[in-house]
Amino acid sequence: MTISLQVLYPASDEATFDYVYYTETHLPLIEEHWGDLMETVEASRGLAGGPDVPPPYLLIATITFPDQEALDTAMGDKGGVIIDDVANFTNIRPQILVGELLMS
Q1: Which of the listed CATH numbers 2.40.110.10, 3.90.550.10, 3.30.70.100, 3.40.228.10 matches domain 3-100?
Q2: How far apart are CA 43 and CA 58, in angstroms?
């Protein structure tokens, strides 16, 4: 069963987010440390929450893993470097959602 890890960065007036750092440094860091464990990684920059509505999230990243064991390994032994890097591109405390992929 494919497991997804979604990392959501809520928008707020105080939020800062360095998209260049995220794409040029953080995403390659994820690939470097989790590449052998994950299946896919995608990041979506929030543009809107509807017509004339600001986005509720600045960015949502979705990483898929073949199973819960792979996610547990990623978050355990190999997660510290990635989690520690978050402060380098945002002041937001991200929200996390682990789920079961129902379709692809």
Answers
A1: 3.30.70.100
A2: 10
